[in-house]
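mind reviewing this fold:
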Amino acid sequence: MDPRRSDRRALPVEYIFRGRAALINDMARSSGLRSGVTDDGKGGVHQQKTLQHPNQNEFEVHAKLKKLVIKVDVHDDKVKQKAMKTLSSVSGVESLSVDMNEKKITVIGAVDPVYMVKKLRKICQAEIVSVGPFKEPEKKKEKPKKEEKELVDSSTSSLFSSSPSDSRVTHDVFINFSPKDDSKNFVSRLNVALAKAGIECYTNYLHKGTHGLGLEELLLEDTHISILVFSQNYTESNSCLNELHQIMKCRRTHGHMVMPVFYDVDPSVVRHQQGAFGKKLHATAENRYLDRELRENTLLSWKSALTQAASLIGWDATNYRNEAELMQQIVGDILRKLKRGIPGGMELHVRKVTELIVNQSSKVSLIGIWGMGGSGKTTTAKAIYNRLQDKFLNTSFIENVKKVCELENSGIIHLQQQLLSDILKTNMMIRSIAEGEMMISERFQGKKVLVVLDDVTTFDQLKALCANRNLFGPGSVIIVTTRDVQLLKLSKVDYVYTMKEMDENESLELFSWYAFRQPSPIKDFNELSRNVIAYCIELPLVLEVLGSYLFAKTKQEWLSVLSKLERIPNDQVHEKLRISYDGLEDIMVKDIFLDICCFFIGKDRDYVTDILNGCGLYADVGIAVLIERRLVKIEKNNKLGMHDLIRDMGREIVRKSSTEEPGKRSRLWIHDDVDDVLTKYTGTETVKGLVLKSQGTGRVSFNTNSFKEMKKLRLLQLDRVDLTGDYGNLSKELKWVHWQGFTCNFIPDDFHQENLVVFELKHSNIKQVWNETKVLVNLKILNISHSRYLKSTPDFSKLPYLEKLIMKDCPCLSEIHPSIGDLNNLLLINLKDCTGLNNLPKKIYQLKSLKTLILSGCLKIDKLEEDIKQMESLTTLIAKNTAIKEVPFSIVLVNLKILNLSHSRYLKSSPDFSKLPNLEKLIMKDCPCLSEIHPSIGDLNNLHLINLKDCTGLGNLSEKIFQQKSLITLNLSGCLKIDEKHADEKNVSKNDVDAKSKGGSSRCDNQRDVDEACKRHVEILNQSEDADEKGALVNNVDVNRRMVEQIPYAVAESLFNRLASTTFREHGRIYSVMDELERLKNNVESIRAVLPDAQKKQEQDCAVQNWITSLKDVLHLADDLLDKFIIEGMRYKEDASDKNQLTWGHSSSHNFLHQKVAPEIEKIQKKFDDVLEEMDRLKLSPKAAVVKQTDSLRSKSISFLLENDITGRDDDKEEIINLLRQPHGNISSIAIGGIGGIGKTTLAQLVYNDVEVQNHFEKRMWVCASNHFDVKTIVKKMLESLIDSKIDAKLSFEYIQHKLRENLTGERYLLVLDDICNGSHENWTQLRTYLMCGSKDSKVLMTTRSKNLSEIPKASNLWVLNGLTLDVSWNMLKKITFGKDTSVVNKKFESIGKRIANKCRGVPLAIRALGGLLQSKSEEREWINVLQGDFWKLCEDKECIMPILKLSYQSLSLRLRQCFAYCALYPKDWEIKKDLLIQLWMAQGYLDCTDEKTLMEDVGNEFVKIFLMKSFFQDAKVGEDGDIVSFKMHDLMHDLATQVVGNDCCYLDRETKIWVQRPIHVSLEPNAVHLLDSLDASRLRTLILLSSNEEEELNGDELLVISKFKHLRVLKLSHCSLSKLSTSIGKLKHLRYLNLSHCRGLGSLYKSISSLVLLQTLILTPKEKFEFSTEVVSKLINLRHLHISNWEASRDERPSEFVKLSIWKYEGMVFSKWLSPLTNIVEISFFLCGSLQHLPPLEHLPFLKSLHISFLEELEYIYYEQQDFTSAFFPSLESLTLQFCYKLRGWWRMGDDFNNTTCSLNLSLPPFPRLSQLSIIGCRILTFMPAFPNLENRLELYNSSVETLVATLSTVALESLNDFPPLSMLKSLHIDGVNLDVKRIPADWMQNLTSLQFLQINWFSCEAFQEIETWFKDDLKCLPSLQTITFHNCEDLEALPDWICNFSSLQHLRVYDCINLVSLPEGMPCLTNLQTLEIIGCPLLDEECQAKTDETWPKIRHVPMIILSSLH
């Protein structure tokens, strides 16, 4: 018999199910029934797992619901549970029940009885008792109409005649498609896109057998729209065709909406069933139906349906450029069609808010939705979001803000990450709220967004997520839902929409949707429904819950509910909601509900299901019931959620069970209740679950006896809790233990764990899990992540049913127990960041069940074994950042879908992809050694994502890659070797979202297309790397943040200037490459012009960031080429000259150089062409006006604010000093706490330097601990501070301890620990052991940003530093902005300025930064813009001033930004030397200037002043000449520099273990020198070894790697042995800066460095004398700064140009001839040249600014003979120092007469025209030198002749200054009485000094004071500008002279070391402007002032600040 005959009357129906509602109803009535269905998270129900019967399709065709009774041998709950789980997993099972007395299982469903028994017999004995049809009571079947031959219709109508009570929850879309071709993958991706838009859908494949409905019922009552996906093989599936027929019938009879998609088939082919499509249709009918009549009728119905469907409006895939665009269109159209689907009265709310938004579409709308809990705010917001989202490219719905913040300590950060990820279409990682706020403000600038923030409860939450609405683009919409209307008012929303109570009809409609699954009540229930809503009309939530509860209930049950409602007052919402809870007849479901309420909200559903199933609660079914009842919901990422009111209702049920005695409650979660129960030992066996988290940062401890009576405890969560005592007291029923911070080294043996299902011990101290592994047969999940001391894993053979093993971040773990290979149920292994793990055991590859393997960060794992092919179930393999070199070529993993090998730096090749046929995602980012991708990758049909970013060694790719239909995302950015032809592949453009090549972006036709594509594929992109781990692990996010790229403006500027210079034009002419150089110059100019636009756009567009990265590399290559250009030309010229064969102009030499240079230029030009092409594609536009910013100061009168100028901290200082002086016995500590920038360090410095503190403490130490609280480092720094010198790092710590104790023993000391940030209690305890050696009352003063520091180190006092007062803040702002001349401040500026100062909240750093910003703003409008700036909202949190600093940074020109960012090279708190920094800037080309008269050094000095004025630099040290010597950066400014510089700069220290970035500029500590090998030699341009340790010397072997860094511009080494390296240094041709300080082995260096012709700065200060040839210097034609010490000249040749020359210990009598003709020299220093007798002529040097001559003991005259000064005389000299030249007589030799001291001789010399600073010290016989009438800054005259001063005072005023007497501009005068001939000085000379502000008088005797009285006597107008006068070391002086009282402008009076001084002048009270009186080292006067005698006190009591000390 033909087996096909059985099909003669077969129904062409694929699946028949009874329906979800009936199942749920049965379960509610009988607690004995259990179902295998679970919720899908979208309102649908499906089988948790589908097991296919071998003949299941044929079987299901004939299946009808059966009642099957099976006799089973079941004796215990475990076997029963396993049997239930096995049967519920079989497809077709509707319900199960177990009778343990009769030992029978009853199954109802469309099942095969034989198959069911076969499954059971694997567990226990089983026999069939009976099999029969299942008959539903009260279910009437309609007979099919005979005339309808459409068998599908008859079957569904006969079995599923619908009634209102059987209606289903409405879903949105049903998708009909064939699973037999590529449309399956398309539909899978379409499902993702629809779900992302909130559209719920069924498909005939993905949900096969899950909906529980007949198709007609599903279409009519459960979906709005059907989507038909037609494909080439569509007609091969008869199930698709039957569904199509029924879908079209529903459209025809009921108006069901149908929309077709023509995926890879033409609509006309479908319409007419042509070609292969039609042939397959006939073949399907032939094969399926043997009966001719049936076949023909069916075929006819199919053809009719196809014709009708193909004529409908839909989507033709060929009309769209790519699949992403098609999906976007489908989603948008579906959303528009579904607008009518908003339930009940919500439509009115939605419509009103939507209309309001539309009316404000031209601006940014901030809308608030306010209402009480449960009023429908979230529902309304979701509906609005779904309605509007297709109009926005950037959307985000942030749900449950309040709940997330309550559940997680870092909840706000998590939400910020979600918002950033949603909008930017990529995963983001942030570390703090402030960083998140700043990233949001930076990255969202100008974007049009739709953002919903749901359930916001505090202003801080809103500020963190949306601090400034104005940063968004026009048309943006931000919707905030909240219960707090005041919050909305405070946020200044545009409109507050109040959720008003719905009227009766609206409430009735909403209620009906849940109670009847339709918009109105069914017959006979109308009145009952209206009665119900009368009791709960005010809250939609109650209507929803009660409606869901009453669904399918009888009238009697309705009346029972009404009677309960009548007794509940209206305001008791919890009681109304409890009706639904009480209606849960199954006690297990109630337990599940209460467990979720108290412990599991926000947890993963599958995770919770495993735990509760382990408790015997059948959570699969129970959670589905709770979802159906609307008591629980499934939120994003499969998390369990619950409305707050429902949660509170559930918790109140638990609390009311025992209101007075918490120990008798079933669940304990409130901290105080748990603490009370455990402390008082009141726990009982009633307790089933307990959660305790330690409050704050400390730990708590309890005895295990507290748990002794909790016999039924099954759920336990502890966080930072210690238990002592017998662990046997813990319950034996424990199923879930989550213990964070477990402190034991192993789990105690007496801890009962036999029943554990989930065991989590994260952040524990365990070294091994168990001493002896327990047999734990129930354990499914073991998580011991972050156990940093764990060394080995347990014996896994004792854990036979383990499913998930998570051991992340266990660095000491070195091996995995081989028994892991015996775990047959293991699904997941996560070994991420187990850095000590050497390899995997071979047996691990035997895990056939394993689905996910994560090895990321296992740095020592270098291979995967061939045996990995045994992992036949493996779907995800993530092995990022490992040492894997290759993937086994023969690897066969047919189920692998995700392969991630990113950051595998040694990986050389990819696997054979033909062995991975189902791969969907391939991620191999940053694999620089990867040279090829196996061509079989082009044959993968399911691959939709390839990420090969930054695979710099990767060559060509297979052409097939660009032809793959499935490929959606291809990222080739940074793959510099990819063949150019791929950039134009049309298939890349078609499918590409972010396809880039050659470091640029191969984007779609325009920006809009790309942005839309990014939005369409956000789900795919988010899953494209770290999201894979997120999917594999619960709650695990690991992403890397992308830094904004530093704009290379200065490099481009320097390059352009070089190309435009006369020198290069001449070279171009000679080399015959004029055109090439001109083209190169024009390209650079084009790029330079768009850089400001790139700066702006890169924050929003990663493609622009990639372009900038590529541009840097190209610019640097071009810069190197120009260097080579110069070097080659010079070398060739020199060689030709030496051989005397060729002349420079000879044509043969031109041809030779042309052939050598032209190809190099062409090569670079091609790279520029690529950059320009990408620039055009990115639409970067020139913004020249932006670049043309000023880099100069607005006014010379504005100066930077020194720390000691800051006022307003006197009270704080006094309080801190009082605390320090208080007796305390042992060592005590005081903490100064406050936010960054508040002035903690400044206050500590004021205290530390206070004279009173210095006198009180015998020893003082200052230690900056900002980076790491490392005890050994701090102890070392303490000793260094004590002895004021560096300590050899090689000294043992024991020796350092000994020396510290030796210095501190018995001494009262003060230790300042500045910027403590991460010190733990253990650190502090250890440090105290080294501090106890001091005497009593020693103190430790700490500064910290932490508010909890007092809890960690147990500080005896915590002084919280508040902001400055408004007056002080305004004065500081005014002083910084306007300088000392505040008279220019008008009232309007003052009013605005005070408001700005007030907004700064008294934070000095913020005030200083804004003051610097306002210096350049002179218009009132500009000040108002600052006052009203958006950045203030980001700063309203007092913890954050970074937005202000960022604003100040953004106000800088691009050149200044690059200079500032470069400072990130230095570590925090580093003292930066000004001259060094300027030389480094010069070396990088940051200071190039087009004006030939302007020196780069001048530009650098100007930049430093700007940075100081704007507070980017601080703590400036000023030299005696008034010039800035050094400065520091505030920690926050350093953070800013580090952030803006990105990966270009880095500082490496001993804490840096590895370094995988590719920095351009590097500084490092000596102990990090091993990291040099990891640096990219092709990019490195700066290498600075930071070391000042004279004892620690690096050997040459460690530094040999430097010879590879061919592109260096800066090399600074110190304390090194260079004997092996010295010859290699000369090969670093591009060096501009070379500093070899305190190095050995420089003997042969001079031969090597002669080739460094680009060198600008050369510093050689060796440890040993060495020979150095001046011939070398003569070849360094670009040298500007030369500092050489300890050398002997071997040749006498001159260099041509340099700027700074330092000559130290030169031993010749006459200096070399090469010095005089220097043209560019700016600074010359002669020091300790003991034999030198005269100098060469220097007066003609045009740029000489500084001349310093010190300790030239044999120098008699500057010049040997008279010079000709007619042409020029020191035209630029500003600073002259002559000190301790004891034999110096005059400027030049005048015969033999050196005793002529007449002024006429001095006046024969021309005066210094620009001299501003003069210091003459110890030159006693100097009488003859040029006059200095125009001196401005400073004059020092110590122990020297006055003849030069007298001559200057006699000078006739210069013509240009004929109205001003000599020295009238002088500001500072220092003069002493040693050898001072007062009589020679005119008595009235002080009348000239009208600008003098500072006067210091040293070493004057009483007689000298009497002599100088004539200078000041009775002249009230004398010195009108004087502000400060200082008397120093006037030992004979007994009373201050009366004439000081004439100086009415005097503000500061200082008297130092006048030991006999006893009285002050009577006129002191007349000095009304006097602010400060300092009397130091004057014991007699100090005693008078301290005693406040009647003689002294009245004279000084009016002075605000008096500083007294008897010792100096």
Summary: Residues 1102-1139 form the longest helix (38 residues). The domain at 1458-1539 is CATH 1.10.10.10 (Arc Repressor Mutant, subunit A). The radius of gyration is 43 Å.
